[in-house]
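Support request, please re-run this one:
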Amino acid sequence: MSFQLEYSSDAYDVEVGNGVIEIDSPFNIGLNYSYPSGSNLRAFVIGGREIGFQYSFTLDPKKRRQPGGLDAAPMPILGRDAATFADMQLNDRRALTVARDQLAKVLQDDGIDLEAFRVQAGRATVRIQNNRWDVEAQAIGRTARAMANTLPSNIETFVIIPQVRGVANSTITLQRSDLEELDTDYDGAWRSLARTRIDDAPISDRDGEVPGLYPKFTYGLGPYLTFSFFDPNEPVRYEVGAQFSFTYAPRPGLTFGRPVPPAAGRQYR
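Re-run finished. Output below.
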């Protein structure tokens, strides 16, 4: 807790003359409380008449504001003997299709879209769209577990490529045997990272793309809320209304769309 006392030599003659502010005292007083998390709560009196409250906090983009552990637990790794499918031949297109569809269903239940699936010589490559997890590593870990539980046991290497609107941003390569070994390891998190290869995003290609994925067309009708601050005559204004929005993506990485503002809105003070 801290206390501030300030003397201001500025009488704000112009502002007082224009009726913007009234000054009864040159002293400003403030009371500030700092929380252990780094946030601050402050109350103050300015000019003997204006009363204000302020709450501020800092964010580190590299550090989560809230710890994990409140999410639903990821699925356990069943082991290759309990995998959903038996070994398959790489030229068995029907088996590949069944494996892809089963994997897509499991991922969808976890808030992840499967956008591409390819198998080559004991190596499975997937492209995913994360729609739920705020930390990308969570989506990657859950994708790897889903692959371990649904893909045939003769697939050893998993390659996971997270995408945003069809644009790849990295390539994660890991071994299925490492997942199985470290599933219940107390230090499994950093051991898994140490054994994982992380590369730059690959050159965009559409090999193995899920049929019917593109073109995409989405639309929606929903409410909107906008704010305006610091107008001397109307310090706080907001507007509410409804708006129609749409997007059209003919191929990965190319999206057209915009929200359509309403013809007229109603303003409130």
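The first strand starts at residue 2 and ends at 7. The chain has three domains: 2-56, 80-199, 216-268.
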